[in-house]
Design goal:
- The chain is α+β, with helices and mostly antiparallel strands and about 270 residues long.
- It has two domains: about 120 residues, Diaminopimelate Epimerase, Chain A, domain 1; about 120 residues, Roll (Diaminopimelate Epimerase, Chain A, domain 1).
- Helix content is about 20%, strand content about 40%.
- It contains six helices and 18 strands.
- It has an 18-stranded mixed sheet that branches.
- The radius of gyration is 18 Å and the shape is globular.
- The N and C termini lie close together (about 10 Å).
Length: about 270
């Protein structure tokens, strides 16, 4: 049995930037957790998404795997999944994509400017004391420390500190959280804030552009900057732009996506 698989660069409008995600359409295959984990390990991207149509046209089941674990929420692979569904003709261009996930129902729609907007749950954070080892792992001055149920959010003194950061990844892996977001106000008038995201505990040393982290960054910076609509730049080596807008207890994430690869995944005796 063979399955269509794609690689999509998310949160960018050009090839080889943003965050690459693999998207596998599994409608025709009875796939299991261990197999999906093996595929994600084989693809060796920060996330691989698996999409299956639901009966009666009720959207799609969507699951996300890093090379090491299944995760509860992933923005860039959701953006990539919606992009694939429209590009491959699985959904009409004007029809929103509906995804049933471990984080509830998520949706994505196409904007008039060609970007994709996703409706995600906000993940606000609260101030906390630094857990053992966090400050040492980050290795620079921490302005403030917050957390939600997934990640720690660490504010640094300025954008340069975020861009130049070289954390101790081995030490960071010992911090009990999915990952650590580092952030500061942007020095560039095009953006409101910058960030980076490190998640060695789930097999991703540094994620290039992280939609789910912006579910935390959006309420954090909206409160500090006094505006509901902001633009963030994730300052990884690849870089990517994420638009965010607070809408009650939801965050609207927006960005571009570009297909890099279309292929066929071989299963079973065909592999």
């Amino acid at each position: 049995m063979s399955l269509p698989i794609y690689t999509v660069d998310a949160f960018t409008d050009r090839l080889f930037a943003g965050n690459p995600a693999a998207v596998c359409l599994v409608d025709a295959a009875p796939v299991e957790h261990a197999w999906m984990q093996s595929v994600a390990r084989e693809m060796n991207l920060s996330e691989t998404a698996f999409l299956r149509s639901r009966p009666g046209g009720d959207g799609f089941d969507l699951r996300w795997f890093t090379p090491a674990v299944e995760v509860d929420l992933c923005g860039h692979a959701t953006l990539a999944s919606a992009h694939v569904l429209w590009e491959a003709g699985r959904l009409p261009a004007e029809q929103p994509a509906r995804f049933h996930t471990r984080s509830g129902l998520l949706s994505a729609s196409r904007n008039g400017d060609g970007t994709i907007q996703m409706d995600f749950p906000a993940k606000p954070s609260t101030p906390v004391e630094a857990p053992n080892g966090l400050a040492e792992a980050v290795g620079v001055q921490l302005v403030s420390i917050f957390s939600n149920r997934m990640d720690y959010l660490v504010e640094l003194v300025d954008e340069r500190a975020v861009r130049d950061l070289r954390p101790d990844l081995r030490a960071l892996k010992a911090v009990r959280a999915r990952g650590v977001i580092v952030t500061a106000r942007s020095d560039d008038a095009r953006y409101d804030f910058v960030s980076r995201f490190f998640a060695p505990a789930v097999g991703v040393d540094e994620d290039p552009v992280t939609g789910s982290a912006h579910c935390c960054l959006a309420p954090f910076w909206a409160e500090r900057l006094g505006k509901a609509k902001l633009v963030g730049y994730q300052a990884s080596a690849r870089g990517g732009v994420v638009g965010v807008e607070i809408s009650g207890d939801r965050v609207l994430l927006s960005g571009n996506a570009v297909t890099v690869l279309r292929g066929t995944l071989l299963q079973g005796s065909e592999s």
